[in-house]
Amino acid sequence: MTGDGGSNQRGAADAAPATGDLLVALGVVGLAAVVLWQAWVIPVSPIYAKVGPTLVPIMAGLGLLVFGAALVVSALRGGWQTKDEKAITPDRLALGWVLGGLALNVLTIGPLGFTLASVLLFVCVTRGFGSRQLLRDAAIGGAFALVAYLGFAKTLNINIGAGLVENGIEWLIATVRGR
Amino acid sequence: MDGINGLITGFGVALTPMNLLWCLVGTTLGTAIGVLPGLGPALTIALLLPITFKVEPQAAFILFAGIYYGAMYGGSTTSILLNTPGESSSIVTSMEGNKMARNGRAGAALATAAIGSFVAGTIGTLGIAFLAPVVVDWALKFGPAEYFALMILAFTTVSAVLGSSAVRGLTALFFGIWLGLIGIDLQTGQARFTFGVQELFDGINVIVVAVGLFAVGETLYNAATYKNSETKITPLKGSLLMTKLEWKRSIGPWIRGTLFGFPIGAMPAGGAEIPTFLSYYTEKKLTKYPEEFGTTGAIEGVAGPEAANNASAAGVLVPMLTLGLPTSATAAIMLSAFQSYGINPGPLLLQTQPALVWGLIASLFIGNVMLLVLNLPLIGLWVKMLQIPAPLLYAGILVFATIGTYGISQSYIDLILLYVVGIIGYLMRRYDFPTAPVIIGMILGPLAEQNFRQAMTISAGDWTVFFTRPLSLTIIVIAVSLVIVPKIYSMAKESQRRQSLAR
Question: Which domain holds residue B238?
Answer without folding.
Answer: 3-502
